[in-house]
């Protein structure tokens, strides 16, 4: 199916939210953020050094709560225990920060280092330290090790009650299993209509009142909200997350960059339309997953919003409002 009707004005004024992006990969583009039409960017890191860069962007352009201060660049390499402690310090300092992106990737291989002769050809607009097209070695990261690191980061998010953006490539079952190991034993009690009637209205009223508030404040070993970013698995794995007994609020985001191979302006594959239809309306998010801020990020977000609205049969204003509400619930745990 084609993107949503291009003749309908795009409702930027309602607020469009990028659920996952990497503008710190191109720090020279950060200056363009104030001129963007997108209302808010959810900036992700992919390596330890990115945290200082994300903090720098948050200091200038972030959702404010007090004076966040400045952070120096991280030492490299850093023991994971120290990295985890630094991450906790930043979550403490930035009360609206999320954890991400984290996850599992069977396809990951360590890139070759830069060779001296490649220096003159490097794009100076890009932040040093990224892959930047370097060839990949044959060396992979052990899946057991990846999972152990992933679970510790999930537990840190649980400790600070923060949302998490999750990366999963060729490891969707493992991503789910690791989360399940954390929430197991804490599943919600799902009562049938008959059981609700048998227990009576008093029980439900109590659960909806003070008891429910006290329950929400208790420490949990799992994060409160997660987003499966640019989800690339099948519907069978995805449907596992929609079990109403799961105590985590699950969201799923999509991008043209990953899910459609940068197929801007082209027909939307029917398989993608069916995947969008699989996701409940209140769980959907959109993202650019782009490495540079500015007009191109706006363009990609407009494109994916139109495709999602077309798949769901939403008008653009209805869709933008729904997606904005979903993002606020994912990022902050509230619709406001």
TrEMBL record:
SUPFAM superfamilies for the chain: Metallo-dependent hydrolases
Keyword Hydrolase on entry: yes
InterPro entries associated with the record: Metal_Hydrolase (IPR032466), Metallo-hydrolase/TatD-type (IPR053044), TatD-like (IPR001130)
Signal sequence interval, chain numbering: none
Region (Disordered): 196-218
Keyword Cytoplasm attached: no
GO terms for MF: hydrolase activity, acting on ester bonds
Protein name as annotated: Metallo-dependent hydrolase
Organism (species): Massarina eburnea CBS 473.64
